[in-house]
Design a protein that fits this description.
This protein is mainly alpha-helical. It has 16 helices and no strands. The longest helix has 29 residues.
Length: 375
């Protein structure tokens, strides 16, 4: 077994694993009803990438030669990845979002490609074997026609356009979970651009089909794994995973409500959470409740986690300090430190996440509101 064959063998297992992980993430997305209709767009976008990994798997293992009727069967779905990602971001966090007639334009590339490839789907096994043979033996060593490059890159060009348009929309609207959404957009932009460059290089240099498929499938696998990791970090998806995590917990409903009350009482009457290194273990010791029970109650009863709730109360304290004129005596960084933040950056990040404003913007808005009421 030569080095290419050995690498292909390893990539086969990688692709199989990523397909399974990606499929699980798609199921989690579909069960996240709090995402409302935006979850369908995200699921379709991710599924479009995952099914293409199966195509890579067929080519790297050369199983496509045994199953020629699988040739290009999922290719049109790639033309839904960009549009569905765009619609996901557009609809995310917007309960009033409704698809309009003009949104049907986003489906046109998929429908056109489906119509274009339909005659091929009806072709004989011999005709498809000829196309497969062309990809493996003729294309790598022959002159590259523009049509070859366009066919290999058209879906990537579309994805690049949509990813860039989505990034512009995210920056303009500053949507909830915008940091994660920006990561999605940047990752898909990098994927599309890099694969366009690689496709062009492979065609111009006459690289073998196996080499090209291995490299492109590896890049796609990394993208899907990163997307899956970031997707489950979305707040509306976490409760679905946490629900399974605590499914076998012995914590009763009554005890959960008691712990919830203990947590709320602590934040109302104590100020230990203003200590910068205050941890869930410290809260556990203070209210005499195991840490894992606190995490369960925060997730199931309060739709939060330890760091979110502690930052919420720290920012609540910071807002009171700003409203009381503390900024006239001490700096913004000092206010953040008094509220438990270890740096100005972490304070600004948490403040903007809770209020969608910086401390200065919040103070200016509060002053304007006060002036309006007094006048």
């Amino acid at each position: 077994m030569n080095s290419i064959e050995s690498f292909a063998f390893g990539v086969t297992f990688l692709l199989g694993g990523v397909i399974l992980v990606g499929s699980f993430v798609v199921l989690v997305i579909l069960k996240s009803t709090s995402l409302k209709q935006s979850r369908y767009f995200l699921a379709i976008a991710l599924f479009g990438l995952i099914q293409h990994l199966f195509t890579y798997l067929l080519f790297t293992t050369q199983l496509i030669k045994q199953w020629p009727h699988m040739l290009g069967i999922g290719y049109p779905l790639l033309f839904l990845v960009g549009p569905c990602f765009y619609l996901f971001v557009k609809s995310y966090g917007d309960s009033s979002f409704r698809l309009k007639k003009r949104d049907s334009i986003h489906v046109l590339p998929f429908l056109m490609m489906l119509l274009l490839l339909f005659p091929r789907y009806l072709g004989s096994s011999e005709e498809k074997q000829e196309i497969i043979q062309y990809y493996y033996d003729i294309l790598p060593g022959g002159a590259v026609a523009f049509s070859d490059w366009l066919q290999a890159s058209l879906h990537l060009i579309l994805l690049l356009i949509y990813a860039l348009a989505t990034l512009v929309m995210i920056y303009k609207k500053d949507k909830k979970n915008s940091i994660l959404l920006k990561r999605f957009g940047v990752l898909l932009t990098i994927l599309a651009f890099t694969e366009i460059v690689l496709q062009t290089g492979f065609l111009l240099t006459g690289a073998s089909a196996i080499t090209a498929e291995i490299i492109l499938s590896g890049l796609m696998s990394i993208t899907i794994l990163l997307l899956g990791y970031w997707i489950v970090d979305i707040k509306q998806i976490l409760p679905v995973l946490e629900g399974k995590k605590y499914k076998t917990s012995p914590l009763s409903e009554m005890r959960s409500l008691e712990i919830q009350q203990q947590i709320q009482t602590f934040f109302e009457n104590e100020d230990w959470y203003l200590i910068s290194n205050f941890k869930i273990a410290d809260l556990s010791k203070t209210i005499d409740v195991p840490s894992h029970h606190i995490s369960q109650v925060l997730s199931e009863k309060m739709s939060s986690n330890f760091y979110e709730i502690i930052n919420h109360h720290r920012i609540k304290k910071a807002k009171k300090m700003l409203q009381s004129g503390a900024l006239q005596k001490i700096s913004v960084q000092a206010i953040g430190e008094e509220c438990g933040f270890s740096s100005k950056t972490s304070f600004y990040r948490a403040f903007k996440k809770v209020t969608s404003m910086t401390p200065t913007e919040y103070l200016n808005k509060d002053v304007k509101k006060h002036d309006a009421t007094t006048n």
